[in-house]
Amino acid sequence: MPYFIIFNTLLLLLTILTFIIYLYLTWNYNYWKERNIPFVKPSLIFGNIKDQILMRKSFSDVFHEIYTNFNDCKYVGFYLWRKPALVIRDPELIKMVWSKQFSNFYNNAWYLSEKVDPYFSKSPFFENDEKWKELRHQLTPTLSPGRIKSLFPVFLQGIDELHNFIKKNAINDKNEIDLRDLCSKYTTEVSTQAFFGVKAHAFDNENSDFLNVGKLIFRNSVRSSFESICMMCDKLFAHYFRVKIVNEKAFDFFKKLAVEIMEYRKTNNNCQYNDYFEHLLGLRETYKEYEDVNNIARQLITVFFDSADTTASGITIAMFQIIRHPEVYKKLRNEIDTILLKYNGQLTVEAIQDMNYLDMCISEAFRLNVPLYFSLRDCTVPTEFPMPKEAQTDGSLLVEPGITIIVPMHEIHRDLKYFNDPDVYDPERFSDERKSTIQKGTYFPFGDGPRMCLGKNFAIAAVKHFIIALVQNYDIKFKPNSNYTLTPNVGIMLNVVLFKQKFMLNFAKRGEFYVE
């Protein structure tokens, strides 16, 4: 056969293949236009996430642009690669999706292949439908307010180790300490003791097994950002690129840990345990799948991910704002001193509950920088949304199954319609006199409805203990000539907030920086 025929045949096949790929990637790009819905014009192939894929912008930047360009729209059409989505900003619609018609938006819109990642794909975050409901029912008792209150001694022990680390490394040696790293050590130590009954040695060993396995899971890289985008945009891509969060090495660590704890508790059966791990063992009586140590290991990974990393981000956010505002620092210290005097110098659960200004400081920090950028939900049942006025037509939009609903929490928390001076850190917003004026459906640092963050109670308790310990005992400033901002990183790991820079701290004994 002449070479030119072979060449032309190959060229034709390549052209056809290219055209098929083009159609696959752009097939839905008229979806919102056909429905007369305001939308962000998609770019060829990438939809509306080209800048995220190329790591030019964060999702926070993109949602901010939508807020600016579609100022009064209740919702805006968006394309997650080739997948149609709606960015909603109307409080009533948010309540509808998260609570009132939750059964129509049951599932998180993240995909992780069970074949590729059989470990984390079975976590409550990725499980859907009845599997999620059953798993949530199984695990909720371990994170109830009463159970978290019983962890008070664990938090105090973690604080003792935190003090020892600061005195050794920051007070005596005058070293600068990275705030995020300090928070990670604390949450890792507290999490392992609270949920597994074992010490992580996070403060006294830089090569702690738990810190190292955390780095395997909580990685921030171009690869992890691309994987996160695949998980929310396209099941085919997530499967083809073999996207996973937990690799075999990390899973083997937690499986080995589970076996060791089980053997230890079987041998030392004279001790009474009332922790997360013991609860998992108790589930074997009702749920046969927990007789398989692999399933126990999977849930250990889940609770470690939620309690160690996400909580560390929350503490970083809260402490950053308190350190940045000396007047807040001093007022909070005064409240802590006053309340502790009332309780004879003892930090108790009741004392912490009386610290109203502490609550205000944390709530306002989480308004300015929510620990999770955004929420993704998939529509599972056809649902009608009222047409936006920009459509200039009556009736409603039929949201079809498979459409992803995006709630940009970070941007809603900074919306001038709901918060005066939204970029100003003002804890007084959450005073008894003013917090009642906050419109419902505009503040949700942990989400809302049945799928609200399961670890909320643990996270808040950990944040409070950490802040009390530092503000009461030390004067803290950012290193000289620093100009830190809580600017979101362009990369993402799921929807957990990541920051562009480290925040280096100088510690001093109380009274050295701030005159009392």
TrEMBL record:
Residues involved in heme binding: C453
Keyword Iron among UniProt keywords: yes
InterPro entries, per the entry: Cyt_P450 (IPR001128), Cyt_P450_CS (IPR017972), Cyt_P450_E_grp-I (IPR002401), Cyt_P450_sf (IPR036396), Insect_CytP450_Detox (IPR050476)
Mode of membrane association: Peripheral membrane protein
Keywords tagged on the record: Endoplasmic reticulum, Heme, Iron, Membrane, Metal-binding, Microsome, Monooxygenase, Oxidoreductase, Transmembrane, Transmembrane helix
TM region(s), chain numbering: 6-25
A matching Pfam family: p450
GO molecular function terms noted in the UniProt entry: heme binding; iron ion binding; monooxygenase activity; oxidoreductase activity, acting on paired donors, with incorporation or reduction of molecular oxygen
Subcellular location: Endoplasmic reticulum membrane; Microsome membrane
Cofactor section: heme
GO cellular component: endoplasmic reticulum membrane
Similarity comment: family membership: Belongs to the cytochrome P450 family.
Protein name, per record: Cytochrome P450 CYP4420A1
